[in-house]
């Protein structure tokens, strides 16, 4: 079997190991995600880079650095623990946006790098489809913010010193902005790639917009609010799929699986010769 398919298979296996570790809240192997992205980079380089040459390795380098930064802690390490709120805590307006950027900032940067590198005029049909696909993501973010604000207004607060409604609203809006930026950038990239015939890569870019839905709730969850506020519209919260003893993190695991699948599709679909420009072959040793 040629070397390149083996690299992609190995990257897929490592991605599956990482997702399995997230699912059971115990890493199968701490370096699985890092190795998966490194193998994907090797796969892209071995297959020849599309013109221009820099976007694919630059985007993968960003993702690789972030994977190293977020490598799971060693078993037996100190956990984050629980935090109990009584409604009197001041609101950190930037808590949500910081959490969103920490979780999805690398995805956003990598997507923007690809979008800038392969910039051009998208065809009308893919552009229209991308715009339509962005509407549910934007709509979900708006519904979440409005629902949380409505619940806070209707809540009979026992503590007059509770969080200010304006601060909460500002925190919610800021929390969803990185996710919205990711969704828009990913769908714009998908439209651009689909117009160039890179349908596999376009599917991977579109899958990143699904990750943005979870990122919306992840940012909101980072803002300290009482448990039940906005609970009725939280479709992608960490508890949307009931955790069990055997599978304590189903939603994070599903998110990781979609994210890594998106990378595999995106970068596998970007390798090889482009219709307009020849691929730049990787140097052959020896």
Automatic annotation (TrEMBL):
UniProt KW keywords: Membrane, Transmembrane, Transmembrane helix
Name the record gives this protein: Uncharacterized protein
Ranges annotated as spanning the membrane: 95-116, 128-148, 168-193
Taxonomic path: Bacteria, Bacillati, Actinomycetota, Actinomycetes, Micromonosporales
